[in-house]
Every structure is written in C-alpha cells, then in structure tokens.
Amino acid sequence: MPAYIKPNAFILMRVGVAAICIFIFHRMYVKGAITDKKDFLPLAVSAVFGVAANMLLFFKGLAITSPINASVLMLFTPIFVIVFAFFMLGEKMGLKKIAGILIAALGALFLVGGTKLSFNQQTVWGDIYVTMNAIIYAFYLVYAKRLMVKYHPLTVTLYAFFIGFFLVLPFGLNQFTEINFSELPSIIWWSIAFVTIGSTFLTYVLNAYALKHASSSLVGTYIYLQPVLAALIAVTFGKDHLTLEKFISMVVVFVGVYLASFKKQA
C-alpha cells in the first residue's frame, strides 16, 4: 500500500479471501450452524466490531500516524479488555493478573517505542483512529466470548466474516476496481497471500479457538508478545540488531505475560 493496492481495497481483499478460506475449512471439518435466531444480532455486532470497524479504523489511522505510535496505542487493547471483561462478563481480575498485564505493557512500550514516540498535531487524528480501533477490538474479544462458548469457534468466525465482507464492500469496491492485477509482481502476490491467509484467516481462527478455552483478558494479554516476536524475526533476517535494552524489554514482556496467565494449581 498504496503503490499497488489502496488501503480499503486491501481490507476488502483481506475479509473476502479470509471468508472464503473459513467457509472451505468450515465445510470440510465443522459443518455447524447458528441454531438460535436471537444470536444473529450478536453475530452482526461481532462483525461490526471484530472485522469491519476494527480493520477500517486501523488502516485509516496507520495512514495518518507513525508506525511506532500505532504499535504503542494498540498495546492498550488488553487494558480495555480488562475493563470490558469485568463489567460485561464479571471476570475476576486478581492482583497478579493486573500486575502481569501492566508489566507486559511496560516492556512492550519500551520495545516498540522507547524514546521515539512522537504524539503531535500532525498525527493526532491517526492516533485517535488507532485508539478507537484498540477499544473496538477489545470490545470484540469480550463480546464474542459468549458466542464462542455456545457454538463452534469456526462457525462464529464464518458468520462474522460473511457479514463483515458486506460491511466493508462499500468502502473498498471502488479502490478494488482500480487494481491492475496483471502488473502485480510475484512478491506482491506472496505478500497478499501472507496477509489474507496468514495474518487474517489463521489469526482470527486461532483467536476464536483461544476465546473458547481461555478468558478474554488472557487472550488480550498475548498481544504483548507481538512486538517481541517482531523484534526476534527482524533480528533473525538481519533487519535489526538485538541490543541490551531490547533484550531486557523482551524479558519484561515474558515475565508480565507469565504472571497474567499463571494459574495456581489446586
């Protein structure tokens, strides 16, 4: 983006390809259905918050603010998850879990931002969009929990993406028609495949399974591992160097996630 594909067109491709992959996978292995008509409204809400608004706001914000600002603001997602989970699901938040989330947030903050953060008038609207996205995605992680427990996670995800596709269609259709597919180099095709299948289809399906078997706050906490893994991958491929500051930040993140996910054995 935007040299080959504009943001909203890319979102339409993400949702469309992921929906097709989920449909095929669902037909092969699950073949479940929504049996209670009153659950279609919650499914629509999940599609709005978990798919359409989530992606549209993040891509819009990323186009205005800096990548570092966006990465740091997304780290607030688990904090919002705690608040929603407490009020909506009545999840108990012990001192150890809260401390773990805050410690992981601190480590991730220094890892992705450090002293390079720059919040100013030029980025303010982008920062607002990304923050709204963090709140919306946090709400989705909590709101969809009941559906994931009641039905098969893949069934819920299928309906969410099917509805979400029609929600993003008006935003991305014009930009999609502008794409010259014949001029896309192979590296762009591979990039499209990775984003649509890897970081959309697989991510949402695995997240759905996680929501079925773990608390919303715990699922949200693992977001803090993203900058750690990104740093490790960058170092592995020679795109970055592992400094003492980054290593300490990674250790802090792992300690925080461990505290947040630790359960005392009976």
Largest sheet: none
Q: Would you count the extended β strands for me?
A: 0
Into how many domains do the coordinates divide?
1
Contiguous runs where pLDDT drops below 50 for at least 5 residues: none
**Rounded average pLDDT:** 86
- Distance from first to last alpha carbon: 51 Å
Helicity level, as a percent range?
A: over 70%
H and E order:
HHHHHHHHHHHH
Describe it for me?
- By secondary structure, the chain is mostly helical.
- The protein has one domain (7-176, 185-261).
- The protein is 76% helix and 0% strand.
- It is built from 12 helices and no strands.
- The protein has helices at 7-29, 40-64, 67-74, 77-89, 95-112, 124-143, 145-150, 153-177, 186-213, 216-221, 225-236, 244-261.
- α1 (7-29) runs antiparallel to α2, α5 (95-112) packs antiparallel against α12 (244-261) and α8 (153-177) packs antiparallel against α9.
- The longest helix is centred in the C-terminal third of the chain and has 28 residues, at 186-213.
- 43% of the residues are buried.
- The model has no long low-confidence stretch (mean pLDDT 86).
